[in-house]
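Limitations

Structures in this collection are predictions, not experimental determinations, and the ligand pose is part of the prediction. Treat each record accordingly. The example that follows, with biotin as the small molecule, is included so readers can see exactly what is and is not provided: the inputs are given verbatim, and the output is the predicted complex.
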Amino acid sequence: MSFPPWLTWLDECASTNTWALQHIDKFKQGDVVFTPRQTSGRGQQGRLWYAPAGVLTASFILQPIAPAELPLLSLAAGLAVIHALEDLISLPASALGIKWPNDVLLWGRKLAGVLGEARLPLAVVGVGLNRQVDWEMVLAAGTINLTPEQVTSLSEITATPPDVLPLLVKLRDYLLQAHGVIRHGGLAGLLPQLRQRDVLYGCPLIVSTGQGNLTGAGAGIDELGRLLVQSNNGSLQALAAGRVLRWEALRRGQE
Ligand SMILES: O=C(O)CCCC[C@@H]1SC[C@@H]2NC(=O)N[C@@H]21
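Predicted complex:
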């Protein structure tokens, strides 16, 4: 198989993000590291991120970035995943959504996650996308503690998920585009799209903030990439980090 010059294809590696960070000196804008077998992936907040067979695991190198741009780029990566998939698969506009800060959901179940890391002025944006995962088999094996309601895969909606290379090409194109938008005007240019895809907007939720749990309703995402929460005590809070523990999706005309 011949690969485009920007692609490093590794037969196996612990983590494409770790590999990219370890070899950062040889990368430039738009380079991509991919492996079909990631053995020790990393997720948000230092968690291990298990990738069963059929997950697309790749890291995209973008430069330059300033420190404050990393969370913006990670959010924009969710949009890039959505645009790439909508170009390659016929999907209703309400199928794919973003759950702050880094999840892409398909009909409310996790389809992809993003981990953005920086070696300034470079950013390594890792994407794990459930392309062709047999979750029934994976969950039955008990290696991973999830329920079928939490996860999904492209193979659940199409018998022929797009091949890896066309997916990487699209993801890379949209990430480069998003990087340009953020460099020139921050997140502002992407906020309308984020608002449209924000599955937490208007939903009752509980967020673990590091200083305790905050209960309220999602009130959008601001220009700094923070989650806005209208808390039950009446104040509007802006969270730069946190983990949404529970959220109750309001059906917004999807059924
Ligand atoms: O959902 C999350 O917590 C983020 C998951 C990010 C996983 C991807 S897979 C490619 C890249 N390499 C890693 O080790 N992590 C990211």
